[in-house]
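Backbone geometry:

***
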Amino acid sequence: MSGGPVLASTSPLMTVRGLTRALPGDPPVPLVRGLDLDIARGTFVAVVGPSGCGKSSLLYLLGLLDRPTGGSLLFDGRDTGPMDGDARAQLRLEQFGFVFQFHFLLPEFTAAENVALPIRRLGRLSTAAARTRALELLEAMGLADQANKTPDHMSGGQRQRVAIARALANDPALVLGDEPTGNLDTVNSRRVVEIFQDLAHKQGRAVVCVTHDPDVAAAADVRVRMRDGVIEGVD
């Protein structure tokens, strides 16, 4: 497809054309400007660039957490522009998983309960089935023995893997990470990267990760280089 970098040979899961986001002002303050990008299933993408270049702004637009002031964003062929807030929230719940620098686990809930929250919110499984799904995801993350522990009884690396399990709760097509290794040591960072690679290569999901970590960027299939709100290049 012409008009933007194609990140894999398969049809794009997400298609971005002329994407712009500016803060109100006189003049408006641009955050991202006229971005063209295709993101394919089965691809691990790292978004890199200096602080303030628009990386996180792009991620929030891709995740439908913010609205563009110009351009279009198609998810699996659906134009997200006309969607109201409820429709966007439902699409996020069904198809998107988020992993942030801080795990944002609820401290009063166990690991299994935290992972089950999005499943219960979606409402397609019974309480018992939601717990079974949560336990399966924790086991896949190597955390079967942590299921009944609250976050304050787990290490930083374990908490972040619980957050990844929660992001996968509703079997999303797209996983978005905002500096997900920023608070982790080298060993745990490497483990998170390996999980992201497996999510893309073995499970066929699209994974987009904003990072300052050169090791994370090097492990990705594709690096989107940003500067001053525009895409400088893709390699």
In short: The chain has seven helices and ten strands. The mean pLDDT is 91. The beta strands are 12-23, 29-40, 44-48, 70-75, 78-79, 96-100, 174-178, 206-210, 222-227, 230-234.
